[in-house]
Specification:
- It contains 14 helices and three strands.
- It has helices at about 1-10, 20-40, 50-60, 70-90, 120-130, 135-145, 150-155, 185-200, 220-235, 245-255, 260-270, 275-295, 320-340, 345-369; strands spanning about 160-165, 165-170, 180-185.
- A hairpin with a 2-residue loop joins strand 1 (about 160-165) and strand 2 (about 165-170).
- The longest helix is centred in the last third of the chain and has 25 residues, at about 345-369.
- About 20% of the residues are buried.
Length: about 375
């Protein structure tokens, strides 16, 4: 059966990337090894039955140690179902198409991005700047552009593009979602790219058009980067598990907190659906909720006045900071309003937004006066 499954996988993955082809092979290996161990008498497709063979395989996947992530479990089911559908047609066995059903796939988990904490972000960036080698500069590039680690591995030598007078952008090639994009960057990122170019030019490997050298191929480069990342995290004393993708989460939430619109963040991150970017909005709303509860539990007007408050005023108590706070409040309110369906809550937020707009306008007049 192995040859039949391999042919089916090859037919399905003709236009897919090597990572997907590898995962199809993993599914085949997992399923056939399970059959060989639990049902050694099954040697042909004609003998396969949903109960007990396929259902028992589901149970085997769910009892795997360490436990499989839901997304990994789902991918295994999806790949086996696609191969059975292909074999049902090529081998003229329609029953195969009903062995793995669509309803067997668990519901997609709703997860929130996990940006680094302020302390983690500061410690890691400080260590990366201190190292100043290829891997550390690559991770700084991830942090300040929001690109994925695979997209970073695929960056071309000339990825830095001029898009206007003294304006630059990183060209991110076709990646995970088969999209390419331009990510605007500032001077710090330009210096990172220049540094990576210098390090690449000093590498003994001949030029291959990529920004990062890959002596043993793309997969080996990504594994090397992940290994270096674990070293960076351990060096700064962080014991919780942190993965490179959280640099992307940090960038996305940072952009929203800075007031960048949802469509713009969607473009920066290369998301195909607004729902993907809305998860970052939920993180920003959690920040707002946390600050709200903090203000409720420790209201400033109930705190004892500082002895120095009469002589030294807060540097944030300015007209400019007031305007900034009003703009942030407007952005968060509008972002949240878009998540609601039309109804009383949405209309209430509309009225609040109008009031904020009037207050902002009066504040602007105050500055002119």
């Amino acid at each position: 059966m192995d040859a039949l499954f391999q042919r089916a996988a090859q037919s399905l993955t003709t236009s897919l990337n090597q990572e997907t082809i590898r995962f199809y092979s993993c599914t085949i290996c997992n399923f056939l090894n399970f059959l060989g161990a639990q049902y050694p008498h099954v040697h042909s497709l004609h003998q396969l039955r949903r109960n007990p063979h396929i259902l028992a395989w589901f149970t085997s996947l769910r009892s795997h140690q360490p436990p499989l992530a839901t997304v990994t479990y789902t991918i295994h089911l999806f790949h086996l179902r696609r191969m059975f559908e292909e074999l049902a047609w090529t081998e003229d066995l329609p029953v195969l198409a009903r062995l793995v059903l669509r309803q067997d796939t668990p519901r997609q988990e709703h997860y929130l991005p996990r940006p680094l904490t302020v302390d983690q972000d500061g410690l890691i960036q400080q260590e990366l700047l201190r190292r100043d080698d290829r891997d550390s500069n690559a991770f700084l590039l991830l942090r300040h552009t929001g690109i994925r680690i695979g997209e970073c591995a695929d960056l071309s030598w000339d990825c830095l593009r001029r898009i206007g007078h003294d304006s630059w952008a990183i060209h991110v090639p076709l990646g995970k979602l088969k999209t390419e994009r331009l990510v605007p960057v500032h001077s710090f990122v330009c210096r990172l790219v220049d540094r990576l170019r210098l390090l690449r030019s000093q590498d003994p490997l001949p030029a291959d058009g990529f920004l990062l050298a890959r002596p043993s191929g793309r997969s080996a480069l990504i594994r090397k980067l992940r290994t270096s990342w674990r070293g960076f995290v351990a060096t700064v004393g962080i014991t919780t598990r942190i993965v490179p993708h959280q640099l992307r989460h940090s960038f996305g939430t940072e952009m929203l907190r800075a007031g960048i619109s949802l469509p713009a963040v969607m473009k920066l991150l290369g998301h195909l659906k607004p729902e993907m970017t809305m998860r970052y909005v939920e993180v920003s709303l959690l920040d707002l909720q946390r600050e709200f509860h903090l203000a409720r539990s420790q209201p400033r007007h109930l705190l004892p006045a500082s002895r120095r408050s009469s002589s030294i005023s807060s540097p944030q108590a300015t007209l400019a900071s007031l305007r900034d706070s009003l703009h942030v409040a407007q952005h968060v309110l509008e972002t949240f309003r878009r998540t609601l369906s039309q109804g009383p809550d949405s209309r209430l937020l509309d009225r609040l937004a109008n009031r904020l707009t009037k207050i902002t306008s009066e504040t602007r007049k105050l500055g002119q006066g």
